[in-house]
Amino acid sequence: MASTVWKGHLTFGLLSLPVKLYSAARSESISFNQLHKTDNSRVKQVLFCQAEDKPITRAEIVKGYEYEKDKYVVIDDEDIKKVAPKTAKTMEIQEFVKSDEVDPIFFESSYYMAPDDAGEKPYALLFAALKETGCVGVAKIAMHNREHIVILRPGPQGLMLHTMYYRHEIRQVDEFRTDLTLVKDKELDLARMLIASLQAAFDPDKYKDNYRENLLKMVETKVAGKEVVETAAPQHKAQVIDIMEALKMSLKEAKKPVASEAATGTEPRGRKSAGD
Question: Which residue range(s) make up the domain with 247?
Fold first, then answer.
């Protein structure tokens, strides 16, 4: 069973319902331990006091904030609890906005929000209302030692919560811009045709982390005492400088049957067999 990462009350208007959050996704990567090169034994990181020039234990460590160069004020957990906002236990919806007005660049982490005891009916009401109106709720919540602005949206089976970056956390890059005057109508028409030829329903099961799988195979190979074989580099096609020519060639390639489908006798994407 998934562990609860937050538990409290969701409020909007005069309605209040108990809810709990579960983490909806987490990244996976291969981690390595640090070993001593001469004997492959694990090494430990030592906490060291610069002033006394000696190692210390974790019990001797406190939190400190540097307010001036090399000047710190000590902050303990009780101080943090005193200034924790009310959103530590209550999440209040402040407004509703249309879902297509929220730029995905603001999305940070995703959570499942489920109703707690006796909260099923108002939870279902909010879920149905959001689906009907095409809106999402904007709320605030204190979690993981910071206050988050969050988006509540209806997912396939229930309400999803996404923590958001604040405006000041989004990087503003002056070089990031697009000059649409460079685009010619004929090029745009071919680009639309190329997109249409490659269009498919989104299926997350099609996408895999090849690098992670290669690392796992490499580890298994090393454990078995076998030689690691270098991964073959992908064959890059010659670059076509002329945009129109590149689009035309891409369109021709997109219309060809997929090699794996031809080899297995299956029908290419988008075509039906004679019996359909």
Answer: 180-200+207-264
**pTM listed for this prediction:** 0.71
3-class secondary-structure state, position 232: coil
pLDDT in tens, 4-43: 899 999 998 888 999 999 999 888 888 899 999 999 999 9
- The distance of Cα 85 from the centroid of its chain, to the nearest Å, equals 26
Contact 113, 160 (CB under 8 A): yes
Q: How many C-beta neighbours within 10 Å does residue 106 have?
A: 16
Same domain, 127 and 196: no
* β-strand partners of 140: 92, 149
CA–CA gap between residue 44 and residue 187 (Å, rounded):
59
* HSE-CB of 174 using CA atoms within 13 angstroms: 0
Do 22 and 131 fall into the same domain? yes
Q: What angle do CA 169, 170, 174 make, to 5 degrees?
A: 130
